[in-house]
What we know:
Layout: E1 3-7, H1 11-22, E2 26-30, H2 39-45, E3 49-51, H3 54-60, E4 63-66, E5 85-88, H4 94-97, H5 101-104, H6 110-117, E6 122-125, H7 132-135, E7 149-154, H8 157-170, E8 173-178, H9 214-222
Parallel strand pairs: 1-2, 1-4, 2-3, 4-5, 5-6, 7-8
Antiparallel strand pairs: 6-7
NADP nicotinamide-adenine-dinucleotide phosphate (NAP) binds next to helix 1.
Amino acid sequence: MATIGLIGSGNIGSTVARLAVAAGHDVVLSNSRGPETLTDLVDELGPRARAATAAEAAAAGDIVVVTVPLKAYRQVPVEPLRGKVVIDTNNYYPERDGHVAELDDESTTTSELLQAHLPQSRVVKAFNNIYVSHLGSLQRPAGHPERSVLAIAGDDEAAKQTVAGFLDSIGYDAYDVGPLSEGWRYQRDTAAYVQPYAVPGTGYPTWPGRRVTPEMLEDRLDAAVRYRDA
Ligand SMILES: NC(=O)c1ccc[n+]([C@@H]2O[C@H](COP(=O)([O-])OP(=O)(O)OC[C@H]3O[C@@H](n4cnc5c(N)ncnc54)[C@H](OP(=O)(O)O)[C@@H]3O)[C@@H](O)[C@H]2O)c1
């Protein structure tokens, strides 16, 4: 069992925290407003959860999930994340985040941007292409016939193994897309983004069945096109 630090405790942060606590991990939650604003969530999660500042959550986590609006990525604390495995859930929405020139010209990708901000950390891209309610409902135990796969990308093989182990513990298999530079294959508005995981009643088109297999995900990743070619 590990301690999972959460930088950001909104839709995705709170959902990852729920999954982690259900799997027996400890979680340290943080947001921009301060730990006192997370009391309700901590109470809901129980004794495995506590709230702290972002720097404290970063320091406490064996694995730290950065799940803030992308525009806030430069505020993610650098020093306490040195050497750590950092999961990046972020997506780039210019209307929300403002324009980032190197994302607009596709000379980098969102997770490479976070990796550049955290040069001593080991960033793995995960959770960005699944809608929050699907993430919180498609988890299944290992070997279950409806278990789904989630994409991961990163430049550090050991970090990807660590994240795959974490995903396994919370109810998902992992599919290794490759280095961070390949993370664009499941970025916003690609074929592998959100839609493959859509479940009935959520307003998204659905796959037959509820399970995303490695083959389905691979097809979607292969179909990805860069924004400039779309
Ligand atoms: N929603 C989805 O279904 C989904 C799915 C996959 C990926 N994503 C991506 O994941 C990221 C998070 O999405 P979300 O929907 O969870 O967002 P959200 O509900 O708006 O939550 C964002 C969280 O980040 C915190 N935060 C903002 N600035 C911060 C800072 N400087 N330091 C620490 N915490 C900070 C916020 O705290 P305060 O409330 O105190 O400001 C809040 O807890 C986004 O990049 C999003 O595009 C979202």
